[in-house]
Please model this.
Amino acid sequence: MLARYACDPEHTRGRRIGEPPSPPRTEYQRDRDRIVHSTAFRRLVYKTQVFVNHEGDLFRTRLTHSLEVAQLGRSIARTLQLNEDLVEAIALAHDLGHTPFGHAGQDALHDCMKEYGGFEHNLQSLRVVDRLEQRYPAFDGLNLCLETREGLLKRCPARVAAALEAAEPDGVARRFLAGQQASLEAQLIDLVDEIAYSAHDIDDGVRSGLLAFEPLQAVPLFMQHCQAARTQYPQLAEQPRRLLAETLRRMLSAQVEDAIAATQAQIEHHRPHSADAVRRLPPLVCFSEPMREQSAHLKRFLFAGLYRHPQVTSTTERACDIVRALFAAYVALPTQMPDEQASGFDRRGHRVVADYIAGMTDRFASREYARLTGRQAFALPSAV
Ligand code: MG
Model:
C-alpha cells in the first residue's frame, strides 16, 4: 500500500545501464540486495562512528548505525505509506563513502585532496555505488536506480553539481541546480540518521565513561524521558544501564512519533499528488518546531560533551596523522598500494589514493600505517 507521493519502483527513473527486470523482486529490493552483497557494505563493520574500532566491542560501528537507521526509517515509512524498500536501500548505503576513523578521517583526507578536487563522504558514497564496486561483468559499480543514488547525495555544492550534471544530464545532481528536493524516502533517511546517531552516541558516550548521567539531565529531551521512566519504574534508580536504555527507547519513540505527525501535517498541507510533485515542494519530512529545538539542544550537548571530549579528540587527532601519513606514503611510492591502484595512480592520479584510503577499515588503516612507518598506530586498546 503506497501513497501516491511515494516512489514507485514501476516508475523508477531507471538505471544508468538498462537491465532486464528480476522478478519477483522490485527494482528497489534489487538495489537493497546489491548493497548488502557489496564489499563496501561489509567493511562498515570495522569503520568508526565516534569511537575507533579498537576501543571496545560494544560501541556502534557504521554497520550497526546503518542497521538502526534502516529500522527507524522503515517503521516511519510504513506509517507514512512510503516505499520501505527504497528507504532501506538508502539507509544501508548512506554511509558507504565514509573513510576510516569517522569524520576526522574525512577531514584529513579532504585536506590531502584539496588541490585535487577535495574529498566529501556523500559524494564518495555515490562513487562507491557508481564506480568503485567491481562485481558485475557489464559495468562498474552497482548500477543502482536513480532514486537510490539521489538519496546518497544529501548535499552537493553548485560547482560539483554542475560537473555531475555535465557527466549525467538530468541525473542525480539535477535537483541541486533546479532548487528541488529529493524524494520523501531520501528526506526521511536524512532525518532518521540524526535521530539514530544522537540516541546511540549518548548510549556509547555513557558506556565509555566519557558522558556522565548528571550533565545529561540538563538536556530537556533526555531529562523528560528519564524522569518519566523513573516515575513509572522507581527501581531503575538502582539500575543505571536499564534506566539509560529505557530513557533512550522513550526518546526514540517520541522523536519517531513527532516526525510522523509533523510530516503528515506537511503532507496534508501541501497535498503532493505524486512523487514528482514532492520534488517541487519545500522539504516535507520534519520534526515539529518544539522537537526540532530539543533535538538541536541535544546535538549541541553531544558536540561539546562527547565529540569534543579530550579523549575523543586525542584519538581523532591521531587518526588524522595516520590518514595523512598513509596518503603521503602512497603518493611517494604508489607501488606500496596493490597493483590495481599502483597502475591506476599513473593514469588517474591522487583520486586513486583517496579512493583506496577511503575504502579502508579502521584496523586495516592502522596495520598499513604500522607497516609503512614502523610505528604503532594507537596505544594498546583500553579495556572497555
Ligand atoms: Mg549516518
Q: What stands out?
A: Residues 345 and 352 are 6 Å apart (CA to CA). The pocket of magnesium ion is lined by residues 65, 94-95, 193 (CB under 6 Å).
